[in-house]
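Deadline looming. Please check this record:
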Amino acid sequence: MSTPSTPARLENPPAGMSSTASGTRMALIAMTAIFFMWGFITELNGVLIPHLQSVFELTHARSMLLDSAFFGAYFVMALPAGRVVARVGYKLGIVIGLLIAGAGALLVLPAAQMASFNLFLPALFILATGVVVLQVAANPYVSLLGTPQRAASRLNFAQAVNSLGHTIGPYVAGLLIFSATLLSAEQLAALPAAERVQTVQPLYIGVAVALLVLAAAVYFFRLPALFEATEQADSRPHGFAEVLRLPHVRWGVLAIFFYVGVEVTVAHFMVKYVSQPTIGGMSERDASLYLSYYHAAAMVGRFVGAALLMRANPRRMLPLYAALNILLLLVTMTTLGGVAMWSVVAVGLFNSIMFPTIFTLAIERLGPMTEKASSLLVMAIVGGAVIPPLQGLFVDLFNARLGDETRALQYAFFVSILCYAYILWYGWRGSRLSGAGLPGAGPSGAGVAAAKD
């Protein structure tokens, strides 16, 4: 997500230009690794949820509590994370985020050792809290590294690497979780729950080690520690209520809520859906590969969409992409086999531009109020904690009534269709500027000019 490019300074300015360039390059390399890691971490739930659902024999609705624990951290911890970063600065904020995420990954180990589903919930909440701190700190840090003219280029590259993490995460997770022993799938299923759940431990040990190594690298390397002073541009204080009175912000917060909710929902039902006998007819391990295809499609779509948006009006592209996803979901709800499978995978292609486009439209022409609007938009990522359990509840209801899990999974996609319908409306009507209450001239964020009519 992009943030306003504002004047910045170094806490300890280097002695020469070459030192500055070297520090910037090192910082960009470190940030690239961090963006990859949080994309990777976010997608582990897509494989972890069906695995734990099978191990603990959970309902669809209860298994989605893992999503609620992870994405609920965005709502609860976004503002505290902002205060931490404001107090310690971006560099130490990034280090703290990495350490918190590493601690959360390590807490998965006793949860698995004790075979306790309930202990997985606080572990994932803490892991997600670290990711929230990284979101708050790393995005503006990348935008402030180097020249302001290339801020959008740096952020697009970082987001593409983030998408790579989303793409690789499910494949690696499926490989490690389902191949952690030399047993066949049938032999693994015959093991007690306490032994099957421990197959997640190698994955989270690796995640914890990677996060702690990155934290050490950021702390000890001479990376620029940048200050961002957007609040200094305020001629008077602006409250969150004042920001929410602007319709394109208010409806934009809801659009982010529904978008993240539907993106996570489709992803986290992907493995269970594709593995159904009349859809893909494969094991959950093999089905996890299609979750990677889903995110790979989003990564490709992000590059293509970025090129198209150089000329196209985002207020037309956003509703068009939402309409295409509605069509794809209708296809998967009414067909079986390869058509149903590939139509739901293709949803990822048209998800690609939605988050950055909604974000850009929602912060358009906000000037000094951009920072508060950005905080509200980050909090709206809590949609990933609300929509998946809601759709899971309908899966359980339909399954109890029909006695057909495949049909239940298909019919429950109506929840996702409603989310895309709102996004379509936001792009078409809700994102329009009202004029009343907008601050005067001034930059409102990277890429905002592209969002104007």
Notes: Residues 1-19, 181-185, 228-233, 441-453 have pLDDT under 50 and may be disordered. The CA atoms of residues 92 and 341 lie 44 Å apart. Residues 117-144 form the longest helix (28 residues).
